[in-house]
UniProtKB/TrEMBL annotation:
Domain of life: Bacteria
Pfam name, any one: ACP_syn_III_C
Keyword Transferase in annotation: yes
Beta-ketoacyl-[acyl-carrier-protein] synthase III C-terminal domain residues: 281-360
GO biological process terms on file: secondary metabolite biosynthetic process
UniProt keyword annotations, A-Z: Acyltransferase, Transferase
Gene Ontology molecular function, alphabetical: acyltransferase activity
Name of this protein: StlD/DarB family beta-ketosynthase
Length: 377
């Protein structure tokens, strides 16, 4: 089996950073009314700026595949071109269409010749699953290199016009015409961007990161769907897909909007996350004290203190000084977030040979968790 190294890291964030006060101007006010939930959500998540693939005139500037293509091209130079890519593995929770696959669309924009492609689906863990596919391909000797990506273009899913038919329908029924919090909540949480890694079987570059191992866990056998799009959750917890609704309900119920069951999230995301972390460390006979940098993808700083307390409860706490996050300035970019964190850490100048970095990514869709341990070579 080969060793596998992350030898290059890149990112692409569209347009300029958007402040909290500009968000509703970009996304639009539903029914012409300012969201009552916006300030509450922003106060809790503590995100200050984020990026949208929307210009100042409200026009869309990039789709998801284009964001990803830009990140991939930012990996390349005269020593490694897009023509050299042997495997392209692209994860996202917000593909531009159902078919073709996200990786196929990225490959179409790259126009870099024939190559193998892979498109993990899901939400935040799709970026880690893209990484794992590339990791296993290079490790097994199937390919000598792989480019792996995580990306989101979620802003177009959150624009006010997506919800106008639902609010109009509520008015016609003489019900309270305010968007349910489980839909409004995520409008103030998510943002756009892409990140990419080059994986190779040799420690090239100025700061190669050896991938020691990767692990993944799912608790879908225990817990119903928590974050979902393309369907609606029934009272019994069953997720009914869009294809089983009449077309007239697609907009009336905002079936394609992304939704979050915030009560289910709060009850499970931390306990299951730390349970999976503990399982991972035990499997690899590793103590949490051995981790020099802990990169947790959290959707909101609201969870930070409680995550640490749950770690203490389960005996796997990692000291605060070893945590590294950049949520406050790039926002929650789903599958891309872990790529953006590692890119910033590598470029900070703080890493030294032998440092161990733990990547930790939860996915609230139906409670999945992914981990990777890296060593600075």
């Amino acid at each position: 089996m080969k060793e596998v190294y992350i030898t290059r890291i890149s990112k692409f964030l569209p347009n300029r950073p958007i402040s909290n006060d500009e968000m509703e101007d970009k996304l639009g006010a539903i029914n012409g009314k300012t969201s009552k939930g916006r300030r509450i959500v922003l106060r809790n998540n503590q995100i200050k700026t984020r990026y949208y693939a929307i210009d100042d005139n409200g026009n869309i500037t990039h789709n998801n595949a284009q964001l990803t293509k830009e990140a991939v091209e930012n990996l390349c130079d005269k020593d490694f071109s897009s023509q050299d890519i042997e495997l392209l593995s692209c994860g996202t929770g917000s593909p531009d269409q159902i078919l073709p696959s996200h990786a196929a669309m990225v490959h179409g924009f790259l126009k870099n010749g024939n190559t193998e492609i892979n498109s993990p689906s899901g939400a935040c863990c799709s970026g880690m699953n893209a990484l794992k596919f590339g990791f296993l391909s290079v490790k097994s000797g199937q390919t000598n290199n792989a480019v792996v990506t995580g990306s989101e273009r979620i802003s177009s899913w959150m624009k006010s016009d997506i919800f106008e038919d639902e609010v109009k329908h509520l008015e016609e029924l003489e019900e309270h015409p305010i968007l349910a919090f489980n839909k409004d909540f995520l409008r103030w949480m998510l943002s756009d961007g892409a990140g990419a890694f080059l994986l190779e079987n040799e420690p090239k570059g100025h700061l190669p990161l050896k991938i020691e191992w990767m692990e993944g866990y799912s608790y879908a056998h225990e817990i119903e769907a928590c974050m979902y799009a393309g369907g609606d959750k029934l009272d019994n917890g069953f997720l009914k897909p869009w294809s089983e609704y009449p077309t007239s309900d697609w907009s009336k119920k905002s079936l394609f909007a992304i939704k979050q069951d915030v009560k289910l999230l709060g009850a499970n995301i931390l306990t299951k996350g730390v349970d999976s972390l503990k399982k991972t460390l035990e499997k690899h006979n590793m103590s949490s004290s051995e981790i020099d940098y802990y990169l947790p993808h959290i959707s909101s700083y609201y969870f930070k203190e409680n995550l640490y307390e749950e770690m203490k409860t389960q005996g796997v706490e990692i000291p605060w000084e070893n945590w590294f996050m950049n949520l406050y300035k790039v926002g929650n970019v789903g599958a891309a977030s872990i790529y953006l964190m590692l890119e910033e850490l590598v470029n900070s100048g703080n890493l030294k040979k032998g440092d161990k970095i733990l990547l930790s990514v939860p996915e609230s869709a139906r409670f999945s968790y992914a981990y990777a341990l890296l060593t600075v070579s």
